[in-house]
Amino acid sequence: MAWIAGEKVMLRAWEREDVRSRWEADQTADSTEIRLRDWHEPPRSLQQREAEFDAQQADPDPATVALIIEAEGRVVGDVNLFHYDAKNRNASIGLSIWRREDRDRGYGTDAMRALMRWGFREFNLHRIELSVAPENERALHVYAKLGFALEGRRRESAYADGRYNDEVIMGVLRAEFEARDHAGTRETAAGRTQSASTA
Ligand SMILES: CC(C)(COP(=O)(O)OP(=O)(O)OC[C@H]1O[C@@H](n2cnc3c(N)ncnc32)[C@H](O)[C@@H]1OP(=O)(O)O)[C@@H](O)C(=O)NCCC(=O)NCCS
After folding, report:
1. Is the sign of the CA dihedral 164, 85, 95, 168 positive or negative?
2. Mutate to test the pocket of ligand 1, among 67, 101, 102, 103 (most ligand atoms within 8 A of CB)
3. Which residues are 66's β-sheet partners?
4. Cα 105 to ligand 1 centre (Å)
5. Residue nearest to atom 6 of ligand 1 (CA)
6. Which atom of ligand 1 lies closest to the CA of 38?
7. pLDDT < 50: residue spans in the chain
8. What distance in angstroms lies between residue 182's CA and the mean position of ligand 1's atoms?
9. How much distance in Å is there from the Cα of 138 to the middle of ligand 1?
10. Whole-number Å distance between alpha carbons of 149 and 105
């Protein structure tokens, strides 16, 4: 498969030049974003990141599906399934829209929905989970809209900015996602039929 299509975005494999795009976007991030994006790492040079990318390409992690999000013909972020557990058909998911000016344009929701659809329907996952900072209201809103239910809270599990912070755990089962996804598809199709008949 060459790509996974959403409504607004398309998901494709990482190429080496994407490492530079990500590095450049990271140079514009402020400290709040850094914490919300869960990077607790020292600054790394472009050369270090390219070397890491080359090592991953040479020895790929079989438990991870890492994809680039493209919209309007350019790279806007990345979305990943990781911690894939073949016995229990579980995986975790992570999403990032790299630049502030690309957020709130529907790309994140669309990208995550497209990867979840692929994960459930093509990769036969049973459950997808994620963790998010409790104050990340935009991310919580997006995940709830996609059908993720609040499952718990890991207390003081993430150290940042000199203190231990809680993380919220959310999860969605395939049947829950599909019920919502099919309803959305029916609504979209009904809207199309209605606008075609009134045109
Ligand atoms: C969180 C993130 C992935 C979402 O992607 P996105 O492309 O910006 O999201 P979308 O445009 O698809 O949807 C944003 C939704 O949040 C809503 N929103 C925006 N700010 C909000 C806020 N402060 N509180 C609640 N909802 C908010 C928008 O109205 C929109 O909802 P709607 O479609 O129902 O109107 C992206 O903003 C991002 O990468 N942020 C920085 C890093 C981060 O937080 N990563 C997630 C770590 S778990």
Report:
1. negative
2. 103
3. 80
4. 9
5. 108
6. 47
7. 193, 195-199
8. 23
9. 4
10. 23
Extract the tokens encoding 162.
């000199």
Give the separation between CA 147 and CA 170, rounded to whole angstroms.
9
d(CA 110, CA 104): 11
CB atoms within 10 A of CB 56: 13
| Residue type for position 178 | E
Instruction: Look up tokens 């409790």; give the residue.
Output: 134
Task: Quick: pLDDT tens for 83-138.
Answer: 999 999 999 999 999 999 999 999 999 999 999 999 999 999 999 999 999 999 99
CA 3 – CA 53 distance, rounded (Å): 20
Cα–Cα distance between 56 and 108 in angstroms, integer?
25
- Domains in the chain (CATH in brackets) are 4-198 (3.40.630.30)
Q: Looking up tokens 């438990």, which residue turns up?
A: 63
- Ligand 1 pocket mutation pick from 104, 109, 136, 143 by most atoms within 8 angstroms of CB: 104
Scanning the structure block, which residue is given the tokens 């996952």? 125
What span, in angstroms and rounded, lies between the C-alpha atoms of 145 and 180?
9
Residue 139 CA, closest ligand 1 atom number: 1
pTM for the whole thing? Answer: 0.92
